[in-house]
Amino acid sequence: MRSKERRESIRVNYLCECQVESEGLRTGKVNGTINDLSLDGIFIDSMLWLPIGSTVKVKFRVQEREIRAIGEVRYFMPHIGMGVQFIDLDPYDRDVIESVVCGKPMPAAPEQKGTGPLGRKGTGPLDPMAPVMSGDLAIVNLFDVIHMIESGGLTGCLSVQSGESSSNIHFNEGVIVGATDGSSIGMTALNRTLASLGETFAFHSSPSPFEVTISSAGNTGLILDMLIHKDEASRPSFN
Questions:
Q1: So what's the pLDDT on residue 163?
Q2: pLDDT the model gives residue 6
Q3: Contact partners, residue 213, CB within 8 Å, separation at least 6
Q4: Cα(217)–Cα(137) distance, integer angstroms
Q5: Residue of higher predicted confidence among 126 and 158
Q6: Greatest Cα pair distance in the chain
Q7: In terms of domains, do 157 and 114 share one?
Q8: In angstroms, rounded to a whole number, what is the distance separating the alpha carbons of residues 116 and 113?
């Protein structure tokens, strides 16, 4: 392993509060606690987690310095938290983190530039057209994705891609209210989507609720009813 790779793999226990922002969350922002810190990213203790590939904005303090960065969820543990890798981090902020991780002196503060406060990157809004969550369904289960959307109280469209075909599941405040798969809508489309499980997914938030074509009290009861009916339909008839 090269020395640079070995240095960047160092992680240290570092406890501090952090704020996570992901467009489409009911509250827009959630609070968590950083458990460990590295030059590459952080692990966030939180009851709310997001699927692998999700883009988030994070804000926390290191050495009295407010760090703001954009990251990508690399792994998660349900009800425990998620590992976030930095994808947009100001070089000075990286040096501040390195002073903690590698025991180096605190870097000198950079000169203020006219392009913004300390010329920092990663502080602007997330791309409004970018998905709130996306990932590989070989890594995360589709039913887990639905549970995360429900836990976050999200309103939007979950697109599921399988080969050349795609289907959509609509959510209002985390509850499934509709589905389409190109040839059908409602429960028929939802049944086909959940049966295929898909290959990749992407969830885009919506500023307004969807028309209700599937009525249910909640996703768990809806999915259980579907599985029960599917099991009964597959049983052999003795009439």
A1: 80
A2: 38
A3: 170, 177, 178, 179, 185, 186
A4: 26
A5: 158
A6: 84
A7: no
A8: 6
Digit-coded pLDDT (tens) for 127-172: 555 666 777 777 677 887 888 788 778 888 999 988 888 999 999 9
Check if the beta carbon of residue 43 is closer than 8 Å to that of residue 33. Answer: no
Structural domain containing residue 105: 3-119
3-class SS letters over 70-122 = EEEEEEEECCCEEEEEEEEECHHHHHHHHHHHCCCCCCCCCCCECCEHHHCCC
Please give the single-letter amino acid code of residue 56. V
Q: What is the pLDDT of residue 217?
A: 78
- In terms of phi and psi (left: phi > 0; alpha: psi -120 to 50; beta: otherwise), the region of 126 is beta
Is residue 8 one of the residues assigned to a domain? yes
- Per-residue pLDDT of 61-93, as tens digits, reads 998 889 999 998 888 777 778 889 999 999 999
Indicate the SS3 state at residue 139: coil
Alpha-carbon span 232 to 89, nearest angstrom:
53
The arithmetic mean of pLDDT across residues 40-52, rounded, is 82
148 and 221 in a single domain? The answer is yes
CB atoms within 10 A of CB 232: 8
Asked if 79 and 165 sit in the same domain, the reply is no
Alpha-carbon span 168 to 156, nearest angstrom: 10
Q: Measured between alpha carbons, how far is residue 160 from residues 167, 168, 181, 186, 199 in Å?
A: 5, 6, 9, 15, 7
Does one domain contain both 106 and 52? yes
One domain, residues 73 and 181: no
68 plus 159 within the same structural domain: no
